[in-house]
Amino acid sequence: MVLALKRFSLKRVTTSLRLGANYVPSAGWFYSWLDFSADAVRRDFADLAGLGLDHVRVFPIWPWIQPNRGLLRPVDDLLTTLDIAAEFGLEVAVDLLQGHLSSFDFLPSWVLTWHRRSVFTDRDVRDGIAAYAAYVSEAAASRANVFAITLGNEVNNLWPANPATPEASRAWAAELVDVVREAAPGVAALYSVYDDAWYAPDHPFHPADAVELGDLTTVHSWVFNGTSRIDGPLGPATLTHADYLVSLAAAAAPGRPVWLQEVGVPRPDVPAGNAAAFVRGTLAAVADNPALWGVTWWSSHDIDRSLLDFPDREYDLGLFTTDHRRKPAAEALAEFAGTTRAAAARPTAVACPVDLLTEPHRRAEVAPGSAFHLEWVRRRQEGPVMIEPAHVSARG
């Protein structure tokens, strides 16, 4: 599958894998949008370009652009950020609904207090979000280096505070993907959820939505979901989790590209001394997966510890410190960026026991630590292995 994107093909090639970073500003975290400095952005992007990366994913904050359902504020700072990225040869993916970032929810007051209503089910709220999505998407698409627009960062983190059913969550996402496509033709419209959509049997956001909505599948691989407890920070299950999740997504929709949109080194699951080895091992395991489109590391920069109340692991996820020093993870990523990787066929496959498209209530059977996952890890140590979709013949 190849989309007609602006200078940014979704087709895997036999040269370098698409490699980027999720942009967390070094000064002031995302609060920096309230006190925008083009010079600070320019220095941050210089850091990333120096690693040999080719793209960044950026996060405007929804309630600061749409503080009232009928008010859309200028996005000049976002457009400046996109232009600065272009100065460094960086393509950009823009996320719309923040939504949820680093354990904090950012929701406008018009869905809170006595107005409280679900962003997924309330018609007035959905219309307001559609107006916001169209507005920001059209503005972002005016820049030639924007290749993708994602509805939001792990929008399923907004549940259960915002009630939703499987039917409602799918309708919500499908509607907004169409809004983005209409507002930003030629740019990939994407939908992003965290891994409960793949592993939690009662979660109202389903694998079918992740692989059927939008122009490719995005997955977020975090080993603090219990994976690191299976065999330690550098064990086979931990180092192959990204490859496993990409393979699971590929099995649910054969032939559809998968973007590893988030992967990072979380403490204490992976101690600081193991960070570089974790990066190397994770990338070595996933790089030749034939379904993989690209990798975007979380995150570009650490969070200043003067900012309070973040979960402790959030502060140190950056490739760079807040004063722009490269960390061991950055050095390992730079080494990888300088190599050539080719997608390779994987003749060995392990049959998935669950049809994730039709049996989401059985997701626990493929979750980390399940019998199937452990068998896949065992086989993966013998060589590259894919996941064979369940009931392939029944689905045609």
Structure explained in plain terms:
This protein is of the alpha/beta class and 396 residues long. The protein has a single domain, classed as Glycosidases (TIM Barrel, Alpha-Beta Barrel). Helix content is 33%, strand content 13%. It has 14 helices and 12 strands. An 8-stranded parallel beta sheet has the order 7-6-3-2-1-10-9-8. Helix 4 runs parallel beside helix 5 and helix 10 runs parallel beside helix 11 (275-286). Mean pLDDT is 93; it is low at 1-8 and 11-15. InterPro entries: GH. This is Cellulase (Glycosyl hydrolase family 5). It comes from Saccharothrix variisporea.
Largest sheet: 8 strands, parallel
The CATH topology is given as TIM Barrel
Provide a count of the helices: 14
Structural class, please? alpha/beta
N-to-C order of helices and strands: EHEHHEEEHEHEHHEHHHEHEHEHEH
CATH superfamily: Glycosidases
What is the architecture at the second tier of CATH?
A: Alpha-Beta Barrel
What's the alpha carbon Rg, rounded to whole Å?
Answer: 20 Å
How are the strands of the largest sheet arranged? 7-6-3-2-1-10-9-8
Show unreliable segments. Answer: 1-8, 11-15
Strand content: 5-15%
Fraction in helix: 25-40%
Outline, from the CA principal axes? globular
- N-to-C CA distance: 19 Å
Please provide the count of β strands. 12
Number of domains: 1
Mean of residue pLDDT?
A: 93
CATH class: Alpha Beta
What descriptors fit this protein?
Cellulase (Glycosyl hydrolase family 5); GH; TIM Barrel; 396 residues; two-stranded antiparallel ribbon; alpha/beta; 33% helix; 14 helices
